[in-house]
Amino acid sequence: MSLSTHVLNAVTGRPAAGMLVRLSDAHGTVLAERRTDDDGRVKDLPAPGTGTHRLTFETGEISPFYPTVAIDFTVADPAAHYHVPLLLSPYSYSTYRGS
């Protein structure tokens, strides 16, 4: 299993570089903290295993309304790659399971 994320600032159409991203397990235990690279990506998150997990993004620099965005996701296949992108603007966000 591998895990990655990508953050795009929808207002500028540019990656959100330097954003803090936190990976936690279902109990709230922080498993990793990383900052997005110049391309808005975090490629080296640890493989959390099966179950429900959370990615928390510190979005306050882009969004005055959402200081953080938390995305809960479930890992069902421990052999698969999971990519959890975030598309962010000041007053909305969306996510999907990427490839």
Automatic annotation (TrEMBL):
Q: Which UniProt keywords apply?
A: Hydrolase, Purine metabolism
Reactions that this protein is recorded to catalyse: 5-hydroxyisourate + H2O = 5-hydroxy-2-oxo-4-ureido-2,5-dihydro-1H-imidazole-5-carboxylate + H(+)
Pfam assignment, any one: Transthyretin
Which N-terminal residues, if any, form the signal peptide? none
> Record keywords: Hydrolase included?
yes
Indicate, by first and last residue, each region the UniProt record lists as having compositional bias (Basic and acidic residues): 32-44
Q: Specify the enzyme's EC class, one word.
A: hydrolase
Which PANTHER family does its entry note? 5-HYDROXYISOURATE HYDROLASE, URICASE AND TRANSTHYRETIN-RELATED
What's the stated role of this polypeptide? Catalyzes the hydrolysis of 5-hydroxyisourate (HIU) to 2-oxo-4-hydroxy-4-carboxy-5-ureidoimidazoline (OHCU).
* Subunit-level organization: Homotetramer.
Please report the name of this protein according to its UniProt entry. Answer: 5-hydroxyisourate hydrolase
Organism equals Nocardia vulneris
